[in-house]
Amino acid sequence: MKNVKLPPVFQQVFFTVVCFTLLSGGTSLWLASQNKLSPEQTRIFETCNTTWNMGIGAIFGLLGSKATDLFESTEDDED
Alpha carbon 76 to chain centroid distance? Predict the structure, then answer.
């Protein structure tokens, strides 16, 4: 298997997205475990839940873009 070098900018963006996604997911779980939420907490829960969903999509999108680059370089090597 070929070693893949990821640019530092990609790594920074990827790990930032992962951190925010985990933070929002953890906050959503914590708020979901509460018995009664105030209207403000409900709003925060909805925001964190949305951020979690967008973060998961972004993670798969970033990984998908790198997978595409990986497959293209393999095809170029075979030609």
Answer: 29
Dihedral, CA of residue 14, residue 17, residue 18 and residue 19, to nearest 10: 120
pTM value?
Answer: 0.77
Give the span between the Cα atoms of 14 and 63, in whole angstroms.
9
Closest CA to 20 of 53, 44, 66: 53
Token duo for residue 9: 């900018």
Reduce the DSSP state of residue 30 to 3 states and report it: helix
Tens of pLDDT, residue by residue over 13-46, are: 999 999 999 999 999 999 999 999 999 999 999 9
Query: CB of 56 within 8 A of CB of 21?
Result: yes
